[in-house]
Amino acid sequence: MGRNMIRNRFELEGSVLDETHLNGTIQVLTSHESVRGFTPEEVPPAALEAILTSARSAPTSSNLQAYSIIVVRDADRKSRISALSGHQGFIQEAPVMLVFCADIHRLKYVTQRQGYDFKADTLEMFLLSSVDAALAMQNALVAAEALGYGAVPVGSVRNHPEELALELGLPEGMFAVVGLAVGREREGVRRGVKPRLPRSVTVHEERYSAAALDEGLEAYDEQMISRRSYDGRRVSIAGEPEKEGSDYGWCEHTARRCTRPETIAASSSLRENLREVLMRRGFSLR
Hints:
alpha+beta, NADH Oxidase
């Protein structure tokens, strides 16, 4: 199954891996598919601990470990998180919702505990702590899938960051970067792995090159159109004519979404004041 998924995902490139490198870890990574429907079955404590331990084993810049993970199992709290995150039902369905937070609160506490002035509330520190949180989330996702669970990252936890901070008891210096819903997948929720842009578009040797960009984009467009990937998902733009199915591929869909950023994140308008929110949350961004 793993080889078929790789073939489907990287169809434009033919065979991308030889048998000697197709081990269990590579199969889990290349077979990833977001799952947005879960059964009520609980994630046992031992399995959850394996997922969390994997998350905590992710790389971390300068060993600062500038992130925290909030484990949410309570049904009422998941319901409130769902309401703050675009009313996505799978958040309530999932037996476990993990929220990965950028955390400089702990660093500030340690600095002041040692008798020093904390001066690391910078833009760089926000990026650093957000990357730490994202790396931990990815490790958790891979671990969950390796154990046979379904999972999906949840960026919409950023829709109402201050309200979510209150719900989760986050002190100043913490910001919810991304969530991860985990559980046994409900039957029929998988739609198949999504093809990726060609290697020539996203991977560059030594220096960036756009030499193969147009050719790669055109090939990817043809692939996505042939799969009817955007049936029922087209983005309308006022004053712009609708495109025929044969003309509506990844490029057209992506360009229209970037013209209307609210279609990238359903509530992106709620994030327009993100800088101000972060500053109120204790990140000066200087």
